[in-house]
Amino acid sequence: MNDAAHTLVRMTDTDLTPADPDDDVRGRKVVDRNGDEVGDVEGLIIDQEERRVRFLEVGSGGFLGLGEKKQLVPVDAIIKVDDDVVQISQERTHVAGGPVYDPEMVVEKRYYEDLYGYYDYPPFWGPGYTYPGPFRR
């Protein structure tokens, strides 16, 4: 995959669905490895070609939508999913210190590379990458 950024889209901006319907975790709480709340899964970034979820769009903070911060978390960070909660391997302070996501900006491949680097995971377009799905349950 040569230009990963152009194959990734916000799922809500398309009529795409994940290849595995169980990977649609929108609306669930996100907690860190200690069980501390990080935010809510407000959206999913999906690969158009394979229809695999690549990032969770996590919203946190704010009140009534004002002052809310959004960040993308690679699905590789998911360690557990149940009916109401997605647990990730990082601590919430690590997520809070990550790059802020603005769904209105044009996202370049470098942005995704930086995200994978920040979370210490190889990018999905790299050699030998194995998709972590279906999400560990």
UniProtKB/TrEMBL annotation:
GO CC, alphabetical: plasma membrane light-harvesting complex
Superkingdom of the organism of origin: Bacteria
Biological process per Gene Ontology, one example term: photosynthesis, light reaction
Family matches, as SUPFAM superfamilies: PRC-barrel domain
Region described as Disordered: 1-23
InterPro entries per the UniProt record, alphabetical: Bac_photo_RC_H_C, PRC-brl_dom, PRC_barrel-like_sf
Family matches, as Gene3D superfamilies: Photosynthetic Reaction Center, subunit H, domain 2
Chain ranges of the PRC-barrel domain: 23-88
PANTHER family (alphabetical): BLR1072 PROTEIN
UniProt protein name: Sporulation protein YlmC with PRC-barrel domain
Taxonomic classification: Bacteria, Bacillati, Actinomycetota, Actinomycetes, Propionibacteriales
